[in-house]
Please model this.
Amino acid sequence: MGKTRSAADTGGLTKFTDVVCLSDKTDMPAEIRKLFRHKKVSYCLLPLDRYQELRTRPDLVGTVLVDAEGTDVAKDPRLARILESLERESFGIVLLTQRIRRPVRSFSLVSSESSFSMPSTVESISLDDLWARISINLADRKHEHSGITVKPAASACLTERLWMNHPVDQPQAGGAFVDSLKEQLRLAGLLQRDFLPSKLPNSDQVHWAATFLPAEWVSGDIYDVARIDEQHIGFYVADAVGHSMPAALLTIFIKQALQMRQTIDNSYRIFSPAEVVRSLNQRMAGQKLSGYQFVTCCYCLLNLKTGQLTFARAGHPYPILLRKGLPPQQLEARGSLLGIFENADFTQQTVQLQSGDRLLLYSDGAEPLIGRLHDKEGFRYTDEFLALTDGSITQIVDRLTDMANSRDVNPAELDDLTVIGLELL
Model:
């Protein structure tokens, strides 16, 4: 797997390295270094503050080992931001949080409050277990077509954070039921995330960023970014009215019902955005859903060759175009909620993107961070959002995620939040 390098080598990456250890310490734990030498993997130590170097050369990184021993992961915004950022770039991550003072079971691996690698049910692991986690990441990195897929576990939802920070008294007799229900909802949330894209189609033409923050264990939002062919990428955000389990179940239907293209014999036809939204509306209306379940959606089709973006929306917040030197621009198209009128009409609009343009597509849970429509003033952006508009799409989405996670809101006002963005390079 490559020649072993000294852990003290903190220089920039110049060749492929199996394991990059991010740490504020001056050296790796001795047993970890011994493990890497025994397994003959290359490794190096990089200060946490230099994590951005990994994002500039992801092709030189096998997997990332984050040494956060002595750090309160749940309360360290810097570490959470690093983990979120690396995960969006599809790095395999292993987080070490606590040194266990026992001879065999050496480290504890637990999940932070951000969405990334390890499940929170793991309390401690042996070095053999640690190596198994690392080797899976390396297999996925080096043999992308081997059939092995490694997906990060989900972050704790907003309600779960409030539960942990402000626990409520409950009768002992109901405790087991509550714990069982919580576990079922947690597993449902993990299953729902399996329907999200495991990797964004970044290229030398376009860069993507996304964040997905359920208000509860499951979300009423869903999104996708899919390459339709070599020239076209289709992407959308859909938001079922309400949240929790009923809305989450509806998102699975949306995922399966939304069709971007039609295959006919040995050829195919790409549906226009208006066709995509119209067909989804007809399928929803045809289901005769109980409980008056409605959905908002915005679907976009990007032509990589021409830079043209065509979009259609159904009651959803307008996409926002960010262009250097100009104020943010809402991209408007007419369309009502999905699932109300089977024969509803939906229009589409086309905009020509330029190099450096960034586009944001988001659910209404992000409106408190981005901006809202006011009766007398029209749509007004927040000052916090306007301060971000000169950044890259990754910086903008990262900062919106930080803002969402740091808000102190009433649990009754929580809403699912989803943001996806692109930047034309």
